[in-house]
Recover the amino acids of this structure.
């Protein structure tokens, strides 16, 4: 097994930025003191190098392979250990353990892929602090739940969970989100059509390696346009100052996920 070596590019927070007023400071203060220094959104091209985006896409596809996506939307939340299976969610870790026991390990993550995931989440956290969070100094940011890879394709919704195209506000939909990030793992116009993020009337077009980040409150209503062709892959990652169970320590995320045995261990 070859180690995965990711070379992160030094990217300044100089992307496409939109500032808006923080509409509900009380809500942010209730989130364990996560009061942004500013509210708004930002997108940055090439935040994730191609090689690193390929690793994240591989993680997404491996995770989704544990389930069964029958509609236009499917997710795998490795942090919580759940994956889409037809019209419901099933326990990812249970499915992975069954495969590990049976010796079917190709779709299991490697130790290196788990660390690549953590490295990316750390980098997103640092970006969010730099971009929005001068008043977070001295406070710890946790990975908020849910934290999921998504697979979106064309077609009518089969279940309520398939209808990803409705406008929403993350703090209302997910509760724990204070800062939201999206990492795009493939490109509009190359791998799929449609699927833009629409936030405050502004269009963010997905591109491999691009990220979008925004404060999660009522100041940033948003939705994803329907994918009309192909398949769009992305990672939704958000942050909170709330400790577990609302959030997860980034250094321990995926600590209990079944992984491929190291070379030689399968014969022990």
């Amino acid at each position: 097994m070859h180690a995965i070596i990711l070379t992160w590019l030094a990217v300044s927070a100089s992307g496409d930025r939109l500032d808006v007023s923080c509409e509900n400071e009380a809500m942010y203060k209730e989130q364990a003191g996560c009061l942004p220094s500013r509210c708004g959104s930002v997108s940055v091209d090439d935040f994730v190098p191609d090689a690193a985006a390929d690793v994240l896409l591989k993680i997404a596809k491996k995770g989704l392979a544990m389930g069964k996506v029958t509609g236009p939307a499917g997710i795998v939340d490795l942090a919580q250990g759940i994956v889409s299976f037809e019209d419901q969610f099933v326990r990812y870790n249970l499915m992975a353990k069954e495969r590990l026991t049976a010796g079917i390990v190709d779709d299991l993550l490697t130790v290196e892929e788990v660390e690549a995931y953590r490295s990316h989440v750390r980098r997103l956290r640092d970006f969010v602090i730099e971009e929005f969070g001068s008043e977070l100094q001295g406070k710890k940011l946790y990975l908020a739940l849910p934290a999921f890879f998504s697979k979106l394709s064309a077609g009518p919704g089969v279940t309520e969970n398939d209808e990803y195209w409705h406008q929403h506000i993350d703090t209302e939909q997910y509760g724990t989100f204070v800062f939201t990030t999206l990492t795009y793992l493939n490109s509009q116009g190359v791998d799929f059509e449609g699927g833009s993020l629409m936030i405050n009337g502004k269009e963010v077009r997905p591109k491999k390696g691009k990220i979008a980040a925004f404060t999660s409150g009522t100041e940033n209503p948003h939705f994803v346009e329907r994918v009309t062709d192909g398949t769009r892959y992305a990672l939704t990652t958000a942050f909170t100052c709330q400790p577990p169970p609302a959030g997860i320590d980034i250094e321990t995320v995926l600590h209990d996920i079944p992984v491929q045995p190291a070379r030689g261990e399968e014969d022990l």
